[in-house]
Each structure stands twice: as C-alpha cells, then as structure tokens.
Design goal:
Length: 296
C-alpha cells in the first residue's frame, strides 16, 4: 500500500483528483458532506471518513477542493476541522478557486499551528482533470512547493510556483478571466452564425482552424452546438468566480470590462434555472436574446 494522503471535498474536481491519486498508488482518505460522493469515492477504492479532521489524521499531505474560501475556512479551522486532526508539519494544499486575501490569511494562521500551506489552484475542467490535463498554480513557500511535487505529478501535467500565499489563487482568477473571454466570444460567434442560417459544425471547424483558434473551441465548442450542458464546471461557480475577479479589479484599480459582461450573463443564466448546468450554458442567454429557441 502506498503513502496515505487526505482530501476534503469530493465533488466534480475532487472526484478526479482523488481518482488520480488512487491510480498513482496513494491510499486516499476523504470527506465530503454529500454521502453519495463518499459512496462513489469508496467504490473507487478510497477510504471515507466522517470529518475534515479525520481526513487529516496520520497524513503528511492533504488537499481541499471546495466551493468557496468561506467553506474552506470552516472545514479547516471549524469544529472537527483539518487543523484539529493535522499533525505538525502537514503540508496542506487548497485547490479551491478562493479569494486571494483569504488564502494569504489562512496560510498565516496555519503557520502559527505548524501547518504548511499552499493555495494550489487547478486550471482545467473536471473532464480534463480525469485525463490529468490540468496545471497547478501555487502560492506559498518555495520549499513547500518542492515537497508537493510528487503529489502534483499524480494529478496534473505541470505545476507552477507563482509566489507567496494568495498568488496561486490570483493567478487562477486571471486564467478564468481570460477563459471566460474566450467562451463569450465563441458563444457570440456561434449564435450569430446560427441566426444567419449557417451550419454550426462547419462554422466551428473553420473557427478551430482559423487565426482565432483556442483550446476552448476544442473543449467547449461541441457542447455549445449540441446544447450539451452536462456539467464539467458549473454556472453557479463561474458566477462566484467572476465576482471575485471584479473584486480584484477594484482592489488593484484595474479595468474589468469583459468580465463584467460575463458576470451579468452568468447571473441571468443562474436566474433562468441553469445554475447547475455546465458553464457554457450561458450561450442559452445569448440565443434567447437572438430570438432562438431555448434548448435547456
């Protein structure tokens, strides 16, 4: 049996992370508030436990993958939290798309308890995560980043150290900002083509081969055309992330023009009942604006 590691949060991304850790030979003990997720985790060979603190017991490395930094804080510092179960010297990585200031604050508080911390955000969808087609962008001490390389290698194709705690989270928000722009431009172009009576498949093929080519067109273009909103990332999560991006723009007095539009589209999609659909379901808002038939 390989080294035992811990995970808290076994949702779309956490399931893939834990699955790849198991496949790499680690023994993984994990916690999630959703019993169904724990059952699926056990079927893959994981060891379910009953609290975040229990997930931290007896391990040298633990990762959290949770919806928000507020939930992370409760899971780590709340009753039966990671900090209660952790041994001194635990290296703890948070893969949540968090508010950078929250990550920096949490890292400082954990250092006082002898717990090493990286905000180790992941870039990629859950579908990409299952194929290890992720990158990790981490903030924290360089020596802690080095200590995490074997774990990062089990779940990603590359890992980057971006600076002190909080810089990984900020980098992830910037990645998602640019990604949102790619998706918005693609959705807008596909809706225009559909409204003009063009064949969506042919149009996408040309876009993929043209100067505007992007990875988004490969990963998300077919889903937009088919109206396939099986989640690989959620509208509700994208809305949360966009608001964090706007916060950072206000913090640094930096313009946030495109993401303001994306945030409003995500909010509209959320209100239209698409909160738990794949992020690209925002194309339905544009299709509705164009007078096209709603598919979801």
């Amino acid at each position: 049996m390989g080294e035992r590691v811990g995970i808290v949060g076994i949702g779309l991304m956490g399931s893939a992370l834990s699955g790849n850790l198991l496949q790499a030979g680690f023994e993984v003990q994990g916690f999630d508030v959703d019993g169904r997720r724990l059952d699926e985790f056990a079927e893959r060979g994981g060891v379910p436990v009953d609290s975040p603190g229990a997930a931290a017991k007896g391990v040298r490395w633990l990762v959290t993958s949770l919806p928000t930094s507020e939930i992370v804080r409760e899971a780590v510092l709340g009753p039966e939290g990671v900090a209660e179960g952790a041994g001194r010297g635990l290296v703890y990585c948070d893969a949540t798309t968090s508010r950078p200031e929250d990550s920096a604050r949490l890292g400082a508080e954990l250092a006082e308890r002898g717990i090493r911390f990286l905000d180790a955000a992941v870039s990629g969808t859950s579908a990409m995560a299952w194929k290890k087609d992720l990158i990790i962008i981490a903030g924290g001490k360089a020596e802690d980043f080095e200590a995490c390389k074997p774990y990062f290698a089990a779940v990603s194709r590359a890992a980057y150290h971006m600076g002190p705690a909080g810089s990984g989270a900020l980098t992830k928000l910037i990645i998602n900002l640019v990604l949102a722009g790619n998706r918005l431009a693609l959705a807008e172009g596909l809706v225009l083509g559909e409204k003009a009576g063009m064949d969506g498949g042919k149009l996408l093929a040309v876009l993929q081969d043209g100067a505007c080519h992007s990875k988004t067109m490969i990963d998300k273009g077919p889903k937009m055309i088919r109206g396939d909103y099986i989640p690989e990332g959620l509208v509700r999560t994208s809305l949360k992330d966009s608001r964090l991006m706007i916060e950072q723009g206000q913090r640094y007095n930096s313009p946030m023009l495109m993401i303001g539009v994306w945030s409003q589209l995500a909010q509209t999609a959320y209100q239209r009942g698409l909160a738990d659909k794949d992020t690209v379901a925002i194309i339905e808002v544009l299709r509705e604006m164009a007078g096209l038939t709603r598919r979801a």
